[in-house]
Amino acid sequence: MKNILKSFFQKKKDPSVENRKVIYGVTDRRNDSFWQKANDFLIDHSPVRKKEKGVFFDSLQLLVNSGVRFVRALEILAERQRNLHFQRVLQSVVYDMVHNGASFSQAMAKYPRIFAPEEVKMVLSGEMTGRLEETLESIADQIQKNIQLSLRIRSALMYPITVIIAIVLAAFVIMILVVPKFMILFSEFPNAELPIATRILIGTSSFLREAWWFLLTLGIASVFVFRNWKQSERGRKKWDGFLLKMPLFRGIVRNIQTVRISSNFSTLIQSGIPITKALQLLSEIIPNSVIGRAILNVKEKIIHGKKIHAAFSEEPAFDPILGEIIEIGEKSGRLSEILEKTASQYQNEVDAQLKNLTTLIEPLVIVLVGGAIVFMALAIMTPIFRLQELFMNT
Fold first, then answer.
1. Residue 302 domain-assigned?
2. What does the alpha-carbon distance between residue 360 and residue 358 come to, in Å, rounded to a whole number?
3. Are 182 and 305 part of one and the same domain?
4. What residues have CB less than 8 Å from 356, skipping those under 6 apart?
5. For residue 352, is pLDDT > 80?
6. Which one is predicted more confidently, 60 or 153?
């Protein structure tokens, strides 16, 4: 929608409306025309997708490894960037580095909506240790892993959600458009006794036609209230705790969290970030607040002298095996490598669980669809057959 509006503004006759070079905090836009300000507003508030960031970090490390100067590499990527918001951010980063003497991490930190705190800290660590190219590659790999995990979860849930939405829409259309026509037919025979299924169908249809506005308002209000509740600290904690305890999904949710913890923790350690600081960043990366709180508890225990594996083992929110794996990594001095292998193993398990979940849901969806079709067919056809018998008898 924003792209359509941007195109609309750019096609206005006002010649000042253009995708000009903008340096945030430097370019004076106070005297711009209304259309230029509207166009800039849409550009400056357009999202930057994770995939775009992953491609950026990957391309940046490739250019730098190829011998291109760091600032020049940023300029090249900014020129090639199709996302105008991201392009302006990169141009501003380059300006800050060239004219203000800022480091890459310092320039990134000015745009927290674009660059996550863990990305900034990893770049800072890479700058301090002289391993910036490796750090950029690690960030790109981690972003890609997170994207792939999210896509696997969405694809597993796509089929049942799509089918359920289709069923609800089809049932709504039948209730609003089809059933009323049969109600007219049945009303011509007031002495005919209708089956219970038909009476339920007619009653539901009448209610939907008369109170659809109420149901629509109730639905929108429920979504709004639920979203606000879930975004509150208390609601988020309860919802995240519920996700970890759901009977059917408990195992898969826990394994997904283990993948995220192992993979991100490994990347942070590889970047040279101290363990306690890595755990602080890890608690901000993990979307589940219960797991995030448990990671902060681990951090506090380590500060007070506990071993990493012992601190993890004492937290019930984590898979018990995770503490044992970390213990092996600590003793062998290969914690980052072992965490990465753990993430890969658990990822394979998550893939198998998602596949099994889809296989389990498919027959349930088929039964649900079949049951709905049979109920509606019986509710509509049974009284028609009775009316036919009535005609034959008379």
1. yes
2. 5
3. yes
4. none
5. yes
6. 60
Digit-coded pLDDT (tens) for 117-140: 888 888 888 888 788 888 888 888
Same structural domain, 179 and 298? yes
To the nearest whole percent, how much of the chain has pLDDT over 70? 92
Query: Which residue reads 């990347």 in tokens?
Result: 267
Could you tell me the pLDDT band of residue 96, with boundaries at 50, 70 and 90? very high
Q: Which of 62, 61, 196 is nearest to 132 (CA)?
A: 61
Q: Domain count for the chain, please give it.
A: 2
Verify that 363 and 249 share a domain, yes or no. yes
With contact defined as beta carbons under 8 Å apart, do 46 and 82 qualify? no
Asked whether the beta carbons of 317 and 254 are under 8 A apart, the reply is no
DSSP string, 281-303: HHHHH-S-HHHHHHHHHHHHHHH
Q: Find how far residue 239's CA is from the centre of its chain.
A: 16
**pLDDT for residue 192:** 64
Q: What is the pLDDT of residue 361?
A: 78
Q: Output the CA–CA distances (angstroms, integers) from residue 55 to 58, 127, 130, in the order listed.
A: 5, 20, 22
User: Can you give the pLDDT at residue 8?
Assistant: 46
**Interatomic CA distance for residues 140 and 55, integer angstroms:** 7
Do 249 and 363 belong together in one domain? Answer: yes
39 lies in the same domain as 147: no
- Whether residues 182 and 299 share a domain: the answer is yes
Question: What are the pLDDT digits (tens) for 293-309?
Answer: 999 999 999 998 889 98
Task: Tell me: do 196 and 307 sit in the same domain.
Answer: yes
Which two structure tokens, joined as six digits, stand for 30?
């106070």
Task: Find the domain containing 211 and state its range.
Answer: 143-394
Residue 340 has pLDDT above 70, yes or no: yes
Q: Is residue 356 part of a domain?
A: yes
d(CA 13, CA 16): 9
* CATH of residue 317: 1.20.81.30
HSE, side-chain direction, 13 A CA sphere, residue 78: 19
Instruction: Establish if 112 belongs to a structural domain.
Output: no
The answer to whether residue 297 sits within a structural domain is yes
Task: Indicate the residue type of 351.
Answer: D
Tokens of 233: 């600290």
